[in-house]
Structure formats: structure tokens, C-alpha cells
Automatic annotation (TrEMBL):
GO MF term set: ATP binding; isoleucine-tRNA ligase activity; tRNA binding
Residue intervals of the Methionyl/Valyl/Leucyl/Isoleucyl-tRNA synthetase anticodon-binding domain: 73-222
Record has Nucleotide-binding as a keyword: yes
Identification of the protein by name: Methionyl/Valyl/Leucyl/Isoleucyl-tRNA synthetase anticodon-binding domain-containing protein
Database matches in Gene3D superfamilies: Isoleucyl-tRNA Synthetase, Domain 1
Endpoints of the signal sequence: none
Pfam families per UniProt: Anticodon_1, DUF5915
Gene Ontology biological-process entries: isoleucyl-tRNA aminoacylation
Amino acid sequence: ARDDKYGADALRWYFFASSPPGNVRRFAEDMVSEVTRRFLLTLWNVYSFFVNYANIDRFSPGAEGALEQSELDRWIISELNQLITDVDTALGSYDPTGAGRKIEGFVDVLSNWYVRRSRRRFWKSENDADKLSAYTTLYQCLVALSKLMAPFTPFLADELYQNLVGSVQSEPESVHLTDFPVADATKIDKQLAADTRLAMRTSSLGRAARSQAGIKVRQPLAKLLVKVTSERQKRAIRRLAYQVLEEVNVKQLDIVDAMPVTEWPLVSEGDLMVMLDTDITPELAAEGMAREIVRRLQTMRRSAGFDIADHITT
């Protein structure tokens, strides 16, 4: 049986999210495998990332008090509350497929933007307010996801919930005994959401320009040129330029009205255009070599079977 191979939750999610109930569909085992790889394993990897570092730092949920959230934290909490609203509306309209696809979209940005953009906050040795805010934010997202997914994937949802919340005495012992999440509309920031989507698009095009030039992301470059069509977009790019700089690994971002005539790679999508300065100075080459050495050392650590918390003294 296919549920022996992939699990009952994978099959349930495939049937809920692939097409609306009642529609004629042809079962495809490879699509169940794709759902498992693209969605369920992505969620589990985010959960595993959180648990690994939370255990190292002895993070205790509920003991953080008032926190000063970063712009990235406020963005994902805004997305989470928008997700709760959308899922509740979809389920109220008997649309589990629409609800499931919204959850899939959120898990994608949680993994591929929030966690990736926050990794250094978890990696740093000091337990400062910024690191505590990152832990608290990711914890809130994972707990809310377990509750949102409970009607779709009851076993996975309860596994996540009990592992995350089991130590909190005042909480129900199972996700299936909790109330469904209620959105906090005051935490939904539509402008920040729009600005972040533009930053994500810009970063994606910047990485595409790198790919076009055959230059790996770990090689720092001098400059990214960005052309947009409105003042609102210019403000958004300026607001989140630091995120684009880190994602594309460039030192400077310039907003231009026209692209120069040059052999640098140019990539565009709709009203957005980027050009990447691919001239590598000796200083940039040296920095790229340092990053390559770090990457190889990390590979050697994994090959040697070292744990995340292990320290090498020689």
C-alpha cells in the first residue's frame, strides 16, 4: 500500500492539496513523493533546524518577556497572521485545497527566506535579544503551523505540537485538543509584505544573473544595479537593500533609471530589471577564497561525523 511507503499524512495532503474534493483525479505515486519532498520534508527540516539549535542554547518558550523584533521577524509574523486568516476563510468556504496551498506557500517562504535569512542569528555564540527574538518567532510559526495542519495531517501535526509544546504545563497535551488559531489583524503589515516580495524577486533575479555569468554565490561581487518603474518600488528596495545585498552577496546596490551599455549580465521580469557587476578585484577574489575554505571545512566536519555543538581545538 502507498501509505506504507509515504505515510498516511502524505497521502492525505496529496488528496487535499492537489485538486478540490469531488474533482475527478488520477492517482500518481510520483506526485505523492513530490509532495513529501517539496512540502512535508521542508517543514520537517525547518522544525529540525529549530530543535537542534534550541537544544544547544537551552531555549525555553514563554520565558522571553517583551522582545524587540527585527524587520524580518515582523514580516514573518505578519505572513503567519495573514495565513491564519486565509486558511480560516478557505476552510469556512469548504475549500481545503485553497487552504492547503496557502500553507504550502507559507512553509516555502518560512524555509527559503526567513530561516535562510536568520541562520547567522541562530549560529552566533551570544544569547542576545536578537537571537532570542529569532527563536521565539520561529517557535510561534511552528506551533501555529501544527494547529493549522491538524485537520490535514493529524499525525505529523501532533508530533510537531507535542515535541514543541509538550514541556509547557498549561497547554493541552495534544494539538487536537487545542483551539484553532485566531489571527491578530494588528500584526498584518501589507506594506512590509509587498516590500519583502519585491526584495525576494530582486534577489532571485540577482542570483539568476550570477548563474548566467557562471559565478557562484559565495564569490562576493562589487555591485548590483536595479531598475524599477515606481517611486514606491524604489522606497521598498532602499528599505530592504541590506537583505538583497546579503542574498546576492554584493557590496553595493544602486537604483538606476537606465542600465549602462556593458557586457555585465542583465536579467528582467516584468517591471523589474537587474544587472550584476561581474568584475572581480583581487580583494574580492581573496574574500571568495576565504569563503571557499570555510565551505570545505564545513564539508569535512560533516564527513567526519562531528555534531553541531562539537568544537575543534586543533
